[in-house]
Amino acid sequence: MTFTREQLTEQIIQAGQFLYARGWSPATSSNYSARLSTNQVLLTVSGKHKGQLSEDDILATDLQAKSLEPHKKPSAEALLHTQLYNWQSSIQAVLHTHSVNATVLSRIEQAAQIEFTDYELQKAFNGIESHEQPLLVPIFDNDQDMSRLAVQVQQWLDSHPDCPGYLIRGHGLYTWGVSMQDALRHIEAFEFLLECELKVRACKTL
Ligand SMILES: [Zn+2]
């Protein structure tokens, strides 16, 4: 299904309202995008309140993350979005959030990945049909150099074609989908799993 720019803009604005209301995109953090065409995406501009986005807060970029609207500046992390659209042509939406759960769990987990097992909600991800099928989520160390971070991410994606999302340590979550609805389901499922995992770990230390 193809959507017009107006429809995709509305999807991004509504996603922002939902994600801000859940507390997953505080203090102008986070960024969201949707594929506009084979080689263009719509992306949130830098530094806007994500619960109050308007049409003017969204710009088109090419797949190298270059703004196609010179008066608008894309988010610093635009490259991490376009990387995903380049990686798989089926990806139609990418959501990046800065939740407390993603931030805390990625800080206390020392390993370079978290494996979720025995959670029924793992089945929210395409291709996972049982709680016994593990969901592997990589954690990349935070880096202000997006090109360098993108290289790390690409290495993982190349060897994990079914990867539905990743964490950046002390920073947040990236996930995506074949539609905005799909990407939003992934965010909710990830947030549920991250919160459960934190609670399980907290109980174990009691
Ligand atoms: Zn971020």
Low-confidence stretches: none
SSE run: HEEEHEHEEHEEH
For CATH, the homologous superfamily is named as Class II aldolase/adducin N-terminal domain
CATH architectural label: 3-Layer(aba) Sandwich
What portion of residues is helical? 25-40%
Query: What percent of residues are in strands?
Result: 15-25%
- The average pLDDT is 93
CATH C-level class is: Alpha Beta
Rg on CA atoms, Å = 16 Å
What is the terminal separation in angstroms?
A: 50 Å
**CATH topology-level name:** L-fuculose-1-phosphate Aldolase
- Strand order within the widest sheet? 3-2-1-4-8-7-6-5
**Total strand segments:** 8
In DSSP terms, counting alpha (H) and pi (I) runs of 4 or more, how many helices? 5
Biggest sheet architecture: 8 strands, mixed
Give the helix/strand class.
Answer: alpha+beta
* Bound small molecules, deduplicated: zinc ion
The geometry reads as globular
Number of domains: 1
List the helices and strands and how they pair.
Layout (H helix, E strand, L loop, with lengths): L4 H17 L9 E7 L2 E5 L13 E5 L15 H10 L5 E5 L2 H9 L4 E4 L18 E6 L5 H14 L5 E4 L3 E6 L2 H25 L2
Summarize this, please?
This protein is of the alpha+beta class. The protein has helices spanning 5-21, 78-87, 100-108, 146-159, 180-204, and strands at 31-37, 40-44, 58-62, 93-97, 113-116, 135-140, 165-168, 172-177. Strand 1 and strand 2 (40-44) form a beta hairpin.
